[in-house]
Amino acid sequence: MGTQLELLKNRLYGEGGLGVKNIKLFLGSDREIDAEDLAREINKSLTHLFLGETSDIAE
Questions:
Q1: DSSP per-residue string spanning the chain
Q2: 51-57 long-range contacts, Cβ below 8 Å, gap at least 24?
Q3: 3-21 pLDDT tens trace
Q4: Is 8 exposed, middle or buried (0-12, 13-18, 19+ CB in 10 A)?
Q5: What is the tens place of the pLDDT at every residue in 28-53?
Q6: For residues 57 and 55, what is the distance between their CA atoms, to the nearest angstrom?
Q7: N-term to C-term CA, the chain
Q8: How far is the CA of 9 from the CAs of 13, 43, 53, in angstroms?
Q9: Confidence label for 59 from pLDDT (cuts 50, 70 and 90)
Q10: Burial, 7: exposed, middle or buried (Cβ in 10 Å; 0-12, 13-18, 19+)?
């Protein structure tokens, strides 16, 4: 199994991926995070999104 970062790269940019062209992220207050941990958190979020486990927060 590849790293979380490799998985994220494929999900965003790889063949059959989301076709992302540009992405901006806000790290919040915890700036002490490495690329692998950040990729893990984004992968978790994408998984929830793909499984429909999200809710609309727009008012």
A1: ---HHHHHHHHHHSTTS----------TT-----HHHHHHHHHHHHHHHHTT-------
A2: none
A3: 999 999 999 999 999 898 8
A4: buried
A5: 787 888 889 999 999 998 998 888 88
A6: 6
A7: 40
A8: 6, 10, 22
A9: low
A10: middle
From residue 13, how far is each of 1, 23, 45, 47 by CA, in Å?
18, 11, 16, 16
Which amino acid would we find at residue 39?
A: A
Ramachandran region of residue 5, left (φ > 0), alpha (ψ -120 to 50) or beta? alpha
Cα distance between residue 50 and residue 47, in whole Å: 5
Length of the chain, in residues? 59
